[in-house]
From TrEMBL, chain A:
Name the UniProt record assigns to this protein: Xanthine dehydrogenase, molybdenum binding subunit apoprotein
Pfam family, one: MoCoBD_1
Stated family: Belongs to the xanthine dehydrogenase family.
Protein's UniProt keywords contain Metal-binding: yes
SUPFAM superfamilies linked to this entry: CO dehydrogenase molybdoprotein N-domain-like, Molybdenum cofactor-binding domain
PANTHER family, per the entry: ALDEHYDE OXIDASE 1-RELATED (PTHR11908:SF132), XANTHINE DEHYDROGENASE (PTHR11908)
GO molecular function: 2 iron, 2 sulfur cluster binding; iron ion binding; molybdenum ion binding; oxidoreductase activity
Record lineage: Bacteria, Pseudomonadati, Pseudomonadota, Alphaproteobacteria, Acetobacterales
Residue span(s) of domain Aldehyde oxidase/xanthine dehydrogenase a/b hammerhead: 50-159
NCBIfam families, sorted: xanthine_xdhB (TIGR02965)
UniProt keyword RNA-binding, yes or no: no
From TrEMBL, chain B:
Keyword ATP-binding belongs to the record: no
Alphabetized PANTHER family for the sequence: XANTHINE DEHYDROGENASE (PTHR45444:SF3)
Domain of life: Bacteria
UniProt name for this protein: Xanthine dehydrogenase small subunit
């Protein structure tokens, strides 16, 4: 991308005075009237760079606003007998100290299962769990009082369970264990394992990941008339916030309005877990009759909210001389934390992604969500999919090393077929498989084979540093696994001056959803970007929305917005034909001009005429994804409308003395269908790749082994990638592949699938470590591959060291 | 005498009298004047979302290391851990000021970020823009353009979770190709001279309108005044860059009492050669101090880059890092390997102690009550000394060391006449590995002696296991770093850094 940056300043973007920088092809398409497939800058980009894009904490505070803080449990497990509030109430500025008993409705913010208390209900479940809500005249004073909670608590501590393996051994699960089994005949898997010419078993350990959205959790609740609340919240799921707040207050949903203009990052961490903070701010505001803001300190955000589930794996795989898998059994143990949250759906997605791009003839995958005394783990970009798919990539690598074959050859031998070997373990037939062609194209683009040889040559002549290279594919299912969530609504207003306001149920967290939806509307109406404005997501505009999650934001809301815009366009076309002659079907809308019956008039002129003729110029729109269905008991059906594909080749270098790693080059080829906005899609692909690389390399979570404290509780101790971790040689391209399903302009979802691309980095590290051993060396490398993990893996080979 | 905090902001001098002495610049911006473009991401100086520029008159600035524009020195810093009274006599530039520097819709830094799709969620973006603005000013003044590696180093203190950085790095290259915008420093300089003229011997500030005596902030301009004030009030907290004290306040709610700020004492910010010694004033910024040390020993370049990110290096001081005495401070192992000495002062009295005798125990040092670190004295290296400094952490940039070390041998022929092996992260304090040193002393600089020293390290250290690394890893890597040192500095066929260090290899752009 950076090499072929040949800008052409074309027409304006969403900021009226800032021309778009486009390549020549897109510039020509834009001039010809295209509004999708154009790399328009993010609709807020000009505001971002000026510090003029307001987030919740930037909205001017209403007079009388109070500030809240949450007091944390000092133990990971135990019984909370009582809280003595007197000392805290005597502290400067403290207005109220609220506990579970003060919650008028249900003390619960569990999104699926009602097992998640807002404030501790007597049982202490993890260290950092909110036990009391402190409200004060200033944020600092509320935080100070919250930090002084310890002596006010009468606690009987208990011994916590802190690891998933320990909970698994005790059979302590948050949800009933699930098994995804598909056999050609009963007992076929057992037979395949027993009869296999080759068999490998083992364990693998994969750490969790903190979302580290730059904007922390925040909610600001303002009382409105007649027992109502308006809540500004940084959330991916305004409708659920509305529902949870009403539930906690014992109200009905129509009393609560939740609004979110934008988030400073979400990544899944604000799908369900913004609920705790939305509820707390609302409980305090409703009780005190004053606006209450709850903005978490970063450390509190770390110790109170969950993250990507760490996984532990046991597996047993059978394969033939070509490395082709004949049967596999795997058990996935997720650390769910103290409550179910979204863990059930996360595990389902993990089970449904263990196959990644590979056909598994006989397969049994067991899922166990362990209950531990830690933060409740939740959604994070990929939602279990990466945790499922990584295992099979480790297995592929092990098979290749066991057989002494090229890992890519083993992967190719196992790829799903197009006409046969094309049914997933959950019995969905794959109809859009392009993985083999995509990988072939990347192999050529990246000169993969030539570089494999160059890496080997380097390793022969270097003793301290070793290189590794790997190429891994991606297949990722798109749709919510729960079919009813696959729906969306939108509202498009065309004002009498021809300007357009777009609203929809999705939320903007940086992924460019509003930009894409506005492009779709501009395309439908044939108008310029500057004529379209996006507004905040608002539960009083679109009801019963789904979370902006599962990569579906543009698929669902883009279609709903197009539906609304096309309704208006059709009305305008009917009106234009009636007024000016000709057929409605022949009316053309492009470049702010409407052509009807041989005359051309400005879009705004037609709109004014239509308004005066009493034509309705606003419309709602709706979309429900077709074809998807799911049997949650048997774990089969068609959970995914389609699949997104990709592949990445990464080359790394490791230091065998220290375990330090550096990514030298990555080549990415990714399938975004027919892209709505190539620049935004490449941004998602590269952003996801680097974020996932962080998960698999430097981002290590550590809890105190006995007291359950999260020791990596801030960016000082939890290390996400920096600019220096992005390789100078990062080559990203989009794979030309219009969606076989009629999605919005044949595009594909792009938020989560790129999380699988960075598997190539971990596998390349594994390859480099293997180079320190003899033929067939098969290192035992856990993830994240920190310097220490790398040295441990080298030691596992008994390599020669000084 | 009661004085307000006076500084240049929003094109004029503002005077603040009502803020607590530990009010942060960020809290004041977002709360008191509702300039919300500057964001809080972590409140501990690790994410850079709150990056702003602080400017001061070059003749007051005392040290190098900042960015020169006109007669100003500008520095990117973290507003979240900077106390407002430290702005007295300086200028504060925030993201909102950039648009005013150009006739166009956006400043070239901002325009390039839009053109290259450098923002996604946008929350980190103002901080990135301000760091890039600092880069822009530096290279505009020097009429240079940075390469990609230099840009990435400039951005090491800014975290972005969305983009993966590639478009931001592209923007940083592109901003120099757009029509330029210049910062007119004249009005700022004039305003700062006016404040300086009325400030006299220094700022003495306490928040107005508080009940009781209230904590006091004192920022003298002369060393003697500082020494006398501190000797009289040894319970006061000595404040330099606040890159640690800011966290005491933000995260631990600690009452720091009266603050004695040494950042306005020009004499303490000096770095100068005195005979065969480099004298680093205790108030010199990390940016300036590391530059001076690299001037003595180019092999320290990587350690300097990895010591925090630019906003911390521009605020924090090497004196603070040494006096703070954390076992994982990265300056001390390097300085110890260079046989640095410390000048300590109490009232009018001063004394010198070797750095390797300064640390007594975990977070305990040889400073008496009311005594402060005045300067670090670094002997100029012997030409026959071979030195390296290594840092090991999970992330290359801006991480806390699992272990770090400064390693030096001086050779007479092939025989080691002097050896210093100083380690951080291996014990309760930074300290020398005496057993390993003994194994090398007067030995031939060869594989046998190195292996003996590696084995002896086990007698020197029994490190802890913690979130950064296990005891076993620390032990193994400490040994391996000695080996790396030998590979790099042996007389026969020494290996270049790119053969033993992954980042050096990566930055050489070999793929």
């Amino acid at each position: 991308m950076n090499q072929d940056f040949s800008p052409d300043r074309a027409a304006c973007g969403f900021a009226r005075d800032i021309p778009l920088v486009l390549d020549a092809g897109e510039a020509a398409a834009l001039r010809a009237g295209a509004r999708v497939g154009i790399s328009a800058a993010h609709e807020s980009a000009h505001l971002h760079v000026a510090g003029a894009a307001p987030y919740v904490d930037d909205v001017p505070e209403a007079a009388g606003t109070l500030h809240a803080a949450l007091a944390p449990s000092p133990v990971a497990s135990g019984v909370l007998r009582s809280i003595d509030r007197a000392a805290l109430l005597a502290m400067p500025g403290v207005v109220a100290v609220l506990t579970a008993a003060d919650i008028p409705g249900a003390n619960d913010c569990g999104p699926v299962i009602h097992d998640d208390p807002i404030l501790a209900d007597g049982t202490l479940r993890y260290r950092g769990q909110p036990v009391a809500l402190i409200v004060a005249t200033a944020r600092d004073l509320a935080r100070l009082a919250a930090a002084r909670i310890g002596p006010c608590l009468d606690i009987e501590p208990a011994t916590p369970v802190l690891t998933a393996r320990e909970a698994y051994a005790r059979g302590d699960a948050l949800l009933p264990p699930a098994s995804l089994i598909r056999e050609s005949a009963p007992g076929a898997l057992t037979a395949a394992l027993a009869a296999a010419p080759h068999r490998l078993g083992g364990q693998f350990s994969l750490g969790g990941q903190e979302q580290f959205y730059l904007e922390g959790q925040i909610a600001y609740a303002l009382p409105t008339e007649n027992q109502g609340l308006r809540v500004l919240c940084s959330t991916q799921h305004p409708s659920e916030m509305q529902h949870l707040i009403a539930h906690a207050l014992g109200w009905r949903s129509h009393q609560v309005l939740v609004e979110c203009r934008r988030m400073g990052g979400g990544f899944g961490g604000k799908e369900s877990q913004s609920g705790l903070f939305a509820c707390c701010a609302s409980i305090a505001a409703a009780r005190l009759g004053r606006p209450v803001k709850l903005r978490l300190d970063r450390d509190d955000d770390f110790i109170m909210t969950g993250r990507r589930h760490p996984f532990e794996y046991d597996y047993d795989v059978a394969f033939d001389d070509d490395g082709r898998i004949t049967g596999i059994e795997a058990t996935l143990i997720a650390n769910g934390g103290h409550s179910a949250d979204l863990s059930g759906a996360v595990m389902t997605r993990a089970l449904c992604h263990l196959d990644n791009a590979y056909y598994l003839p006989e397969v049994a995958i067991n899922g166990f969500v362990a209950r531990t005394n830690t933060q409740s783990n939740t959604a994070f970009r990929g939602f279990g999919g990466p945790q499922g798919a990584l295992l099979i990539e480790i297995v592929m690598d092990r098979i290749a090393r066991h057989l002494g074959r090229d890992p890519l050859a083993v992967r190719r031998a196992n790829f799903y077929g197009v006409a046969s070997r094309n049914v997933t373990p959950y019995r969905q037939t794959i109809e859009d498989n392009v993985v083999a062609a995509l990988v072939d194209e990347l192999v050529a683009q990246a000169d993969y084979q030539g570089r494999v040889a160059a890496v080997a040559a380097f390793n022969r002549s270097n003793s301290v540093l070793k290189k590794g290279i790997a190429l891994t594919p991606v297949k990722f299912g798109i749709s919510f696994n729960v079919p009813h969530l696959n729906q969306a609504g939108a509202l498009v207003h065309v004002y009498a001056d021809g300007s357009v306001l777009v609203n929809h149920g999705g939320t903007e967290m940086g992924q460019g959803l509003n930009t894409k939806v506005a492009q779709v509307v501009a395309d439908a109406l044939g108008i310029g970007f500057a004529a379209v404005r996006c507004s905040a997501t608002d539960t009083s505009k679109i009801a019963n929305t789904s979370a902006t999650a599962a990569s579906t934001g543009a698929d669902l809301n883009g279609m709903a917005a197009r539906d609304a815009a096309m309704t208006i366009r059709n009305r305008l076309a009917d009106f234009a034909a009636a007024r000016h002659g000709g057929e409605a079907a022949d009316v053309q809308f492009a470049n702010d001009v409407v052509r009807v019956s041989g005359i051309a008039l400005a879009f705004a002129t037609l709109v004014r005429q239509a308004y005066e003729a009493r034509v309705q110029l606003w419309s709602d729109g709706f979309y429900a994804t077709p074809k998807v269905h799911w049997n949650p008991k048997g774990l089969h059906g068609r959970p995914f409308y389609y699949f997104a594909y990709g592949a990445a080749a990464s080359e790394v270098i490791i230091d065998t003395l220290t375990g330090e790693v550096s990514l030298l080059r990555a080549d990415i080829l990714h399938d975004a269908g027919r892209s709505l906005n190539p620049a935004i899609d490449i941004g998602q692909i590269e952003g996801g790749f680097i974020q996932s690389m962080g998960w698999l390399t430097t981002e290590e979570l550590v809890w105190h082994a006995t007291d359950g404290r999260l020791l990596t509780h801030a960016p000082s101790t939890y290390k996400i990638p920096t600019a220096n971790d992005c390789p100078a040689a990062l080559h990203t391209r989009l794979f030309d592949n219009p969606n076989t399903e009629p999605t919005i302009h044949r595009s594909k979802a792009v938020g989560e699938p790129p999380m699988l691309l960075a598997f190539s980095v971990l596998l390349a590290i594994r390859d480099a470590i293997a180079a320190t051993g003899g033929p067939g060396a098969d290192p035992d490398l856990r993830a994240p591959a920190t310097p220490e993990a790398v040295l441990d893996a080298i030691a596992s080979l008994d390599a020669i060291r000084p | 005498m009661q004085q307000p905090i006076s500084f240049y902001f929003d094109n004029r001098i503002v005077r603040v009298a009502d803020q607590p002495i530990t009010a942060t610049v960020l809290a004041w911006l977002r709360g008191a004047v509702r300039r919300t473009g500057t964001k809080e991401g972590c409140a501990e100086g690790d994410c850079g979302a709150c990056t702003v520029i602080v400017a001061e008159l070059a003749d007051e600035a005392g040290d190098a290391g900042g960015i020169r524009a006109g007669n100003l020195v500008l520095r990117p810093i973290n507003a979240c851990i900077r106390f407002l009274p430290t702005l007295h006599g300086k200028a504060l530039l925030t993201i909102e000021d950039l648009a005013g520097l150009t006739d166009r819709a956006l400043h070239p830094v901002q325009q390039a970020m839009v053109d290259c799709h450098g923002s996604q969620c946008g929350f980190c973006t103002p901080g990135f823009v301000m760091s890039l603005f600092a880069t822009y000013l530096r290279h505009q003044a020097a009429q240079t353009t940075p390469d990609r590696a230099a840009i990435a180093h400039d951005l090491a203190g800014n975290l972005c979770r969305c983009t993966g950085y590639r478009p931001i790095l592209d923007a940083a290259a592109r901003m120099f190709a757009l029509p330029p915008a210049t910062l007119d420093t004249a009005p700022i300089e004039a305003a700062l001279r006016a404040v300086a003229a009325e400030t006299g011997a220094g700022l003495s500030y306490a928040a107005a309108g508080q009940a009781g005596p209230g904590a006091r902030f004192y920022a003298p301009r002369e060393v003697d005044a500082l020494a006398a004030w501190y000797a009289e009030r040894p319970e006061a907290t000595l404040l330099a860059g606040a890159t640690d004290i800011g966290l005491w306040v933000n995260k631990r709610f600690r009452d720091v009492g009266d603050l004695l700020y040494l950042g306005d004492v020009a004499a303490l910010r000096c770095i100068e050669r005195e005979g065969d010694v480099l004298r680093i004033g205790a108030g010199a910024t990390l940016e300036a101090a590391w530059a001076a040390l690299i001037g003595l020993e180019p092999a320290l370049g990587e350690m300097a880059l990895r010591f925090a990110g630019p906003p911390v290096r521009h605020a924090g001081t090497m004196g603070g890092n040494v006096a703070n005495g954390s076992p994982i401070g990265d300056a001390a192992p390097v300085l110890m390997a260079m046989d640095a000495r410390l000048v300590l002062q109490h009232g009018a009295q001063s004394r010198e102690v070797p750095l390797d005798a300064f640390y007594l125990d975990y977070m305990r040092n040889d400073l008496a009550k009311g005594e402060f670190l005045r300067a670090i004295l670094v002997p100029l290296p012997d030409p026959d000394t071979r030195m390296r400094a290594y840092k090991i952490s999970k992330r290359f940039d801006c991480d806390i060391s699992a272990l770090s070390c400064g390693l030096a041998v001086t050779l007479e022929g092939e025989t080691i006449s002097r050896v210093r092996l100083a380690f951080g992260g291996m014990a309760a304090t930074v300290r020398r590995a005496r057993h390993a040193e003994a194994a090398l002393h007067e030995a031939v600089w060869g594989e046998a002696a190195v292996r003996a020293a590696m084995a002896a390290l086990d007698e020197d250290f029994t490190p802890l296991s913690d979130l950064r690394a296990s005891r076993g890893y620390r032990r193994l890597v400490a040994r391996n770093l000695l080996w790396r040192f030998w590979l790099e500095t042996r007389s026969a066929a020494p290996l270049p850094a790119a053969s033993v260090r992954v980042r050096t290899f990566a930055m050489a752009g070999a793929v």
